[in-house]
């Protein structure tokens, strides 16, 4: 059977959903479920550079209100005498009060880059700002922990394309947007028939094999997503649907330890407050449903939800009632298994700036090392090359 160019493109498109290396293609038998009480990581990416100063708010700082005379948040929900949280994140305030949320302030890296693409690559790869890596920190986790990851569903991204963060040298995660849609596509007679025909061309043969593995994985993910249907109501937003998918998979006996989601864009150069309020409201309601779902099933202690954004914003507002690309930012950690709760460190010092930008105090690679070592029980020094210690909040 000769493959035509149009057919080749169709096969390539479906195969791209899995983004797997050849060693994965030999493993057509599915892994067993995770061990009981094994920890699960859920990463939520705030794409576009969220404004951290209007998220965790220095509510008694005169510099903040002076530099943001029209966009400063004046009705924040107080976390302590000096600090508030954006009112659109009311459920985060509840989690904070319950000891189920930790905040690491002023996270960044040396010589920060203000390009969305470059800074996101740095966060995804856990590289230095002058270093260019083709693998991501979670992808290298899959490489290092390959004895536990013989199948690509060990890590899943709810998206149409796989992020750099989940690409290893030898192992990669599996990306999909909707289990049912992926399954339906994989079951089309065209693809089933195409896979049954061998082709000697090396490139096309690789695509056939990848297609076969993708069909297998699509069936596996779809069946697991249906096995533990939730009774929890989720918002009808895209993020709400994504979290519902993740919750259904966590509650099944799928072998997945890492989930990755994204929301945005937070690139708020103009009319920031309205845009950020809408995004925060979506995030707040989706996470409220997600945590409620986990709690009702007794698994909240074994799941860690971590958020990050590629950079923060400048301290002073611009003339368009927005903020421009900045540097350091905060990270949220939500779980029933936190060792330390609340604000883990001080807010950024607004008196000490670098040409109008915050000066980071916490390196994001130390946060990653903490998650890898203390939560995922991996060798963080091998995955990251990071040997400068870890935090103790998890």
UniProtKB/TrEMBL annotation:
Pfam families: DUF1501 (PF07394). Residues 1-27 form the signal peptide. Keywords: Signal. PANTHER family: BLL7424 PROTEIN, DUF1501 DOMAIN-CONTAINING PROTEIN. This is Uncharacterized conserved protein, DUF1501 family. It comes from Chryseobacterium oranimense.
């Amino acid at each position: 059977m000769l493959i035509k160019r149009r057919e080749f493109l169709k096969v390539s498109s479906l195969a791209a959903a899995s983004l797997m290396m050849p060693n994965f293609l030999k493993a057509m038998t599915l892994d067993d479920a995770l061990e009981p009480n094994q920890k699960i990581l859920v990463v939520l990416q705030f794409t576009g550079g969220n404004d951290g100063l209007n998220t965790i708010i220095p509510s008694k700082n005169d510099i903040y209100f002076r530099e943001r005379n029209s966009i400063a948040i004046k009705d924040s929900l107080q976390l302590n005498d000096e600090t508030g949280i954006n009112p659109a994140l009311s459920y985060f305030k509840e989690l904070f009060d319950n000891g189920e949320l930790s905040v690491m302030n002023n996270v960044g890296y040396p010589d920060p880059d203000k390009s969305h693409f470059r800074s996101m690559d740095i966060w995804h790869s856990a590289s230095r700002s002058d270093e260019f890596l083709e693998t991501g920190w979670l992808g290298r986790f899959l490489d290092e922990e390959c004895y536990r990851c013989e199948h690509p569903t060990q890590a899943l991204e709810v998206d149409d394309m796989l992020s750099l963060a989940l690409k290893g040298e030898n192992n990669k995660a599996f990306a999909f947007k909707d289990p049912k849609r992926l399954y339906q596509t994989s079951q089309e007679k065209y693809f089933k028939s195409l896979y049954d025909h061998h082709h000697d061309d090396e490139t096309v043969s690789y695509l056939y094999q990848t297609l076969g593995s993708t069909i297998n994985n699509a069936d596996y993910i779809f069946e697991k997503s249906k096995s533990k249907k939730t009774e929890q109501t989720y918002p009808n937003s895209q993020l709400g649907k994504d979290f519902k998918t993740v919750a259904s998979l966590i509650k099944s006996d799928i072998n997945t330890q890492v989930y990755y989601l994204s929301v945005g864009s937070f690139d708020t150069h103009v009319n920031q407050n309205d845009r950020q309020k809408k995004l925060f409201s979506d995030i707040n309601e989706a996470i409220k449903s997600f945590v409620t779902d986990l709690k009702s099933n007794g698994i909240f202690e074994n799941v860690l939800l971590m958020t990050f954004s590629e950079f923060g914003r400048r301290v002073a507002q611009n003339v368009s009632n927005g903020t421009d690309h900045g540097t350091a930012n905060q990270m949220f950690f939500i779980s029933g298994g936190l060792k330390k709760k609340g604000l883990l460190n001080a807010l950024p010092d607004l008196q000490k700036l670098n040409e109008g930008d915050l000066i980071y105090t916490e390196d994001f690679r130390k946060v990653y090392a903490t998650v890898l070592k203390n939560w995922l029980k991996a060798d963080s020094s091998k995955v990251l090359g990071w040997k400068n210690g870890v935090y103790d909040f998890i």
